[in-house]
Prior knowledge:
By secondary structure, the protein is of the alpha+beta class. It is 65% helix and 15% strand. It has three helices and six strands; from the N terminus they run ββαβαβββα. The radius of gyration is 46 Å and the shape is rod-shaped.
Amino acid sequence: MVLRLEIFENEEADSPAGTVVLDAAALEEARLASYDSGYAAGWEDATAAQSGDQSRIKAELARNLQALSFTYQEARSHVLRALEPLLTETMGKLLPQIAKVSLGSIVLDALMPMAETMADTPVAMVLNPASRPAVEALIAEATGLPIVIEEEATLGEGQVYLRLGGSETCVDLDRATSEIMTALRGFFDLSNKET
């Protein structure tokens, strides 16, 4: 079957040269070509739209993550600023008291290894006069070791030196307390600089 189409724009429409003749195979081929062309254009549009959506979603996600990060940093900074005076004051009051109460047991822990190696030689213990009652009572209760206690007013209340022969051990809770407080202040200083 042959399909004949008329061309209306042409003045010579009645002439055989003005008539376009398409056979069914050529028409089907033209239809398939236009379908493929439309399908490819639709696919390109969909790909471009999806790419645009992905770019928009990525940008929005990055913006939201940045806002969350900023909010987290603000919250962390606020909490640390609120905790700083509390922790500094608490540690400043508690650490010296804890050191004072635990000085005797720490000296005892340092003394026991020395006691294993000594014969009848007394251990010389040098400490601040204010620390003597607590340390002396605990050492006398826990050991029956011969100990010579020497008072030295220039030592801090948290400092004790144990001497046996040529060896010496130092217990310095004053320095430990000071280092803890310095570390705490350093932590808050660093946190404040970060913000």
